[in-house]
Amino acid sequence: MVEYLPRSAWNARPPNGGPGNLTVSRVQGAVIHWPGTGSTKVIHTKAAVASALRGWQDYHMDSRGWSDIAYQVAVDQAGRAWTLRGLRTQSGANGDNDVNERYGAVLLVLVTGEQPTAAMKATTRAVIADFRKIYPRGTAIRPHSAVRPEPTDCPGDPARAAIARGDFTPGHTPGHPEDDMTPAQMQELKNFIEARTQAYALWVHKQLRRDLTAVAKAYTLDIKNYERQTDAADAARAAAAVWATAPKSLQTDGTPATPEPTPAPDPNTDPPLPAADLDPFPPVDTTPDDTAPASTAPDDTAPASTAPDDTAPASTAPDGTATAAATSDAAAPGGAVSGVNP
What we know:
- There is one protein chain.
- This protein is an alpha/beta fold.
- It is about 35% helix and about 5% strand.
- The protein contains six helices and six strands.
- Strands 1-4-3-5-2-6 form a six-stranded mixed beta sheet.
- Strand 3 (about 75) and strand 4 (about 80-85) form a beta hairpin.
- The chain starts with a strand and ends in a 97-residue tail after the last helix.
């Protein structure tokens, strides 16, 4: 349950009339605002918040001509809830009368770049829960920049991010470690994460280089082993080819075989006969052959070159005169002797 500080806690001025209360059936949700001071000077103490609220009320009433400070409730970084117009009174902060009738207005006391604390988030969730009890249809939670007709940066990037994460939604359970962190703690965490990331990247780089070197060495060793095995296999095949063509007198290791000793002859037994000639010379045929050539014929028809009589050819006559072969069956026609010179 939220404890709302009364208007007297910040010494508020009384309003000048006002638009009246919201119509329950028309309310669609609550809009989140920030003061948009443009300063980075934080507003954290109770006195500082009260002083800031009085200044904003003066500006709205005196410079803008509004009936009161524009917002319904304010929530500071310490988790305090401040009553401004109140949850039932229509706000003047959302942009125009139509938007003001459809949405409530909750002010977060934040300066430029400031992150909402866990206490602010918790109290804002409780305020939104009370708002929904009054306006059951008003479940939407919107940043001012989403409903204002004219462009605006309100309520700043940190608050918009918190709305998107559901940090102001009733029943939301913080699921991020930054929910309970100050901006300085957030920056410290960011620096730590960056340093750890760089250190991890360096470690991974070194590890990969070490692993790559080991892989390269293993690959080189495998290649050498393969070459060694290939060379050995080639040598073995070459040796096998050599031994396959080697004479049987060589042993398998290349040394000459030792001849077996010859036994001494036995005087009581005859020596073994020599083995038969496996390829004897063919026998001479002595059968007479009538078709034998003239050079071997024993009759009178032997050629003149081998005749023993006086009818030898002129080329072999002993007296130097050419003679004709005097054979009874070799007479030339006309009684002339063949081969006789005229």
